[in-house]
Amino acid sequence: MRRFTDASVATDVPAIAAMLRDDVRCSMPPTPGVVVGRDAVVRDWRESGFEGMKGLRGIPTSVNRQPAVAFYLFDQQEDAYLPLTIDVLRVAGGEIAEILIFSDDRFPSLGLPERLPADSAA
């Protein structure tokens, strides 16, 4: 979890890709569709601009007994990190087999902070 969190905060796509199974599945419910395969997932992240995203913080958590990371994005106007997504991971054989990405509306139901202070190094 720490490696995934650190690589995600650094938007280090090659480091994240190295943790993924060849047949990894990635989806963002309720958005329809599933991206399947390491190359397709990496391409999707690059096309969506993930590598250019700066100011992320991650807090390890769990969802339905699965490891997860709550990501926050720095908002200059608010001078705080605000909820962005929750990435729920399914790990098999030491590799990430599936990533389910949920929107920020799930933070309250998981008891996650609604914001992190600007000086937070989560």
Rg of Cα set: 14 Å
Number of domains: 1
User: From the structure provided, what is the oligomeric state, counting identical versus distinct chains?
Assistant: single chain
So what's the CATH class? Answer: Alpha Beta
Q: What is the name of the CATH architecture?
A: Roll
N-to-C series of helices and strands:
HHEEHEEEEE
Number of strands: 7
Helix content: 10-25%
Q: How far do the termini sit from each other?
A: 13 Å
Mean pLDDT score, rounded? Answer: 93
Give the percentage of residues in beta strands: 35-45%
Determine the number of helices (DSSP H or I, runs of at least 4 residues). 3
| Uncertain spans | none
Structural class by SSE content: alpha+beta
CATH topology term: Nuclear Transport Factor 2, Chain: A
Largest sheet: 7 strands, mixed
InterPro entries: NTF2-like_dom_sf (IPR032710)
Protein name: SnoaL-like domain-containing protein
Provide tags for this entry.
122 residues, alpha+beta, Nuclear Transport Factor 2, Chain: A, 7-stranded mixed β-sheet, 3 helices, 7 strands
Would you write up a description of this structure?
The structure is a single chain. The chain has 122 residues and is an alpha+beta fold. It has one domain (2-107): Nuclear Transport Factor 2, Chain: A (Roll). The protein contains three helices and seven strands; from the N terminus they run ααββαβββββ. Strands 1, 2, 3, 4, 5, 6 and 7 form a seven-stranded mixed sheet that branches. A hairpin with a 2-residue loop joins strand 3 and strand 4 (66-75). It is globular.
